[in-house]
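user: can you give me the structure for this one chain? tokens are fine.
assistant: on it. calling the predictor now.
[tool input]
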Amino acid sequence: MNAFDDFSITGAHKEFEILENILNSTATLLADFDIQPKSEPEVYKPMINICKTAFPDNKSCSFKFQKTAKCYNPDILIPSLECAIEFKYVKDEKELNRTMDEILADVEGYKGNPSYSVFYSVFYAVGSFCSPQRFNCMWEEKHFPDNWKGIYVQGK
């Protein structure tokens, strides 16, 4: 047994844990860089660069999930994890609920891609109109597939 086994970062499980820590820290990271987003692009554009520190193959999305009637364009792709990330900027619970429904409708558009099989939706909430526990209940009630994970963060 190697004395440093506990410190090795190997395997997809550990990589997803790192990614989820970054995504769960979105509001804190943006605040640390004095970024007070007023729109969705002001959330995801800095997060592209932040994610690159842990996942150098991370890229802003020029790749599109093309379907017959619509084209789906995630905010961040991490090919090494076969992962796509969507960021959403929401101002109140009604908008949060509507946006979750839109993502749920988009699930079919992302389905069946041979290169990407794990999906995150990060909801950056302005203010404290919803608790993380309530968000998790809302997410579960919508019956998202297991390969989709919703993350709720509270900004200012």
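assistant: here you go. The helical segments are 11-24, 26-32, 41-54, 93-110, 132-141. The CA atoms of residues 85 and 128 lie 23 Å apart.
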